[in-house]
Design goal:
The complex is a heterodimer. Chain A is α/β, with parallel strands linked by helices. Chain A contains ten helices and ten strands. In chain A, strand 9, helix 9 and strand 10 form a beta-alpha-beta unit. Chain B has one domain: Rossmann fold, CATH 3.40.50.150. In chain B, 37% of the residues lie in helices and 22% in strands. Chain B has eight helices and seven strands; from the N terminus they run αβαβαβαβαβααβαβ. The N and C termini of chain B lie far apart (42 Å). The chains are: A alpha/beta, B alpha/beta.
């Protein structure tokens, strides 16, 4: 996921403004899809807007691989950046916080406050690291279900929306809790990754694993495989963009002055941009978490053993809007279309829209009026 | 009421009369979803639209009409035989690159296909072409040649011949005069401004 623009280019209908995260603690055992058990977990989350008396206006936002629970507003007046989907969420915006009660939680296995490999293992008093069970997209959804039902007392969700890994969770929501969710809005996503997407994840993982500081995952906090993690992020970041997007932003532009002290310092702007992306990522992301979450992405497969997507999607009862992006070559339009084809073959109420944004996989995060219109209308209809 | 709206209504009324309650209907080239919205409300059909124009797709979404933004040919390939009860091809076969192939695919996927088109054989359309030498432009086909929209002048006789060559069963046909309201049976290829064919899909 690319970093959101510092200032939104929207004509601003309104902002959610200052927000605070909260923590939900699940004290009981949680059995993962893998069969392994963790002794409880924490999910960090934020909410915007108000739950109505009928409790039927709740919308869950699911974040992508490197995203978190902070999807709108700011935590302090000093914040330079707003939450990652601030241009979609707010009073009067497409996901209108005057109408909807919006919830977003950091996923299980993450590292932004929710329980993940970095968290303390109550059995040992040390970080789980590689003792953390392999989490799946389904585990993330089941953990969120506990937050929504037990933590927030919600009887159901009006909608679940998310892109990329968030889109996988949206689909899983529709399958796992068909009567809990009225509308699904997955975008820039896939029912299973193709070989290319798995290949990119594997290069990222190897960059981390082969960094000597990784130490079989047993690094101390702050002394992890920063080089490997930065390289993984740099490469993944390219897959979130597009040829046209990079060309427009950087072309062959060079860095200012003679900053390059040696032959292989960043010479072109795109190089320095990627280095910056890699560096800023190591300050906010845990390398083991990156390994776990990319594995969850790779293993996600709604086609299952039968190879028929319908076997899973048959369970869906929500109205679904799938949005694909023409320039997305990580989870290309065809993979988004396949989800709709299968839903339609099952006789489900499904809509597909394909947007001509040029910025690649992360198009759903940039200024996208067509996306706002379709989300707004789909939620209102 | 604008003339083209009256025309649209007649078209819709005839097609609506053929469709039964609760049937599965695919409208190819659904535009803003007006027909499907009507069918979904009045007959509780399970509707789906297809259109290549995002603006029209947005209108369908606003109407709560399920819609597929994309190419109809490739969408049809995704469905098993006789999946739909009805496929509607209303005023769009003229503008396709391969209309025959789309109709054949539709007959595979659906038990019934409704094809409505402006009859180029209508005497006024012949006269217009005779006078100007160019294709007619009117409220149904407002674009001139330089806009590059495909335009296949199709006639009632030409359509019948196509059905015959392909062994397609014509279950019903309605021919409307130039006003698109009153039906005509006399020399339809000459006197009908608009034709709607009900084709029977492949064997069950």
């Amino acid at each position: 996921m690319i970093d959101p623009p510092t200032e939104s280019t929207e004509a601003q209908p309104g902002e959610v403004g200052l927000v605070q995260w909260k923590d939900f603690h699940w004290e009981n055992d949680f059995v993962c899809e893998s069969g392994d058990t963790i002794k409880g977990f924490t999910l960090r989350y934020e909410t915007y807007g108000r739950l109505n008396p009928e409790k039927d206006n709740a919308v869950l936002v699911c974040h992508a691989l490197s995203g978190d629970h902070h999807c709108a507003g700011i935590h302090s007046l000093k914040d330079r950046k707003q939450g990652w989907w601030n241009n979609l969420i707010g009073p009067g915006k497409a996901l209108d916080t005057n109408k909807y009660f919006v919830i977003c939680s950091n996923c299980l296995g993450g590292c932004q406050g929710s329980t993940g490999p970095k968290s303390l293992n109550p059995a040992t008093g040390r970080s789980y690291n590689l003792d953390f069970p392999l989490v799946s997209i389904r585990d993330m959804v089941q953990a969120q279900y506990r937050l929504l039902t037990r933590g927030l007392g919600l009887p159901g969700l009006y909608a679940v929306i998310g892109g990329s890994m968030g889109g996988m969770q949206v689909l899983q929501w529709g399958i796992e809790y068909p009567d809990f969710v009225q509308k699904l809005v997955p975008m820039a996503t896939t029912a299973r990754q193709n070989a290319q997407a798995i290949a990119f994840n594997e290069v990222g993982r190897l960059a981390i694993i082969q960094d000597p500081a990784w130490q079989e995952g047993d690094y101390e906090e702050g002394r992890g495989p920063n080089v490997g993690l930065a390289v993984a992020r740099m490469m993944a970041h390219i897959t979130y963009l597009s040829d046209a997007g990079l060309e427009k932003k950087f072309g062959r532009g060079r860095v200012e002055g003679d900053a390059a002290r040696s032959q292989f310092d960043a010479e072109f702007q795109v190089e320095s941009y990627l280095r910056y992306q890699g560096q800023s990522f190591i300050n906010r992301f845990d390398a083991n978490s990156y390994l776990y979450l990319t594995k969850a992405l790779d293993r996600f497969d709604l086609y299952g053993e039968s190879g028929r997507l319908e076997d899973q999607l048959e369970r869906v009862r929500s109205r679904t809007l799938v949005v694909g992006f023409q320039s997305d070559w990580l989870f290309p339009p065809g993979q988004n279309r396949s989800i709709v084809h299968a839903l339609l073959r099952c006789g489900k109420d499904a809509t597909y829209a394909e947007l001509g944004l040029t910025l690649g996989h992360d198009s759903f995060l940039v200024h996208a009026p067509d996306l706002y219109t379709i989300v707004r209308n789909f939620l209102a209809s | 009421m604008q003339r083209h709206k009256i025309k649209r209504q007649t078209d819709f009324q005839i097609i609506s009369g053929w469709i039964s309650e609760g049937q599965r209907v695919l409208d190819i080239g659904c535009g803003r979803g007006v027909l499907l919205e009507h069918l979904m409300r009045s007959l509780r059909v399970r509707g789906l639209g297809v259109d290549t124009d995002l603006d029209k797709v947005q209108s369908c979404v606003k109407r709560a009409v399920p819609v597929y933004h994309g190419d109809a040919d490739s969408l049809l390939r995704e469905f098993p035989d006789r999946y739909f009860d009805w496929i509607i091809l209303s005023r769009m076969v003229q503008e396709l690159t391969h209309p025959g192939e789309l109709i054949r695919q539709s007959l595979r996927v659906s038990a019934n296909v409704a094809v409505g088109f402006v009859n180029q054989g209508y005497w006024l359309n012949r006269w217009s072409t005779l006078l100007t030498g160019s294709r007619p432009t009117n409220e149904v086909f407002p674009l001139s040649w330089e806009d590059g929209h495909p335009y296949n002048p199709v006639t009632i006789e030409g359509f019948r011949a196509f059905a015959g060559r392909n062994g397609i069963e014509v279950a019903n046909a309605v021919f409307l005069k130039g006003n698109w309201r009153d039906s005509t049976g006399f020399l339809p290829n000459l006197t009908a401004g608009y034709a709607i064919f009900h084709l029977r899909g492949g064997s069950s």
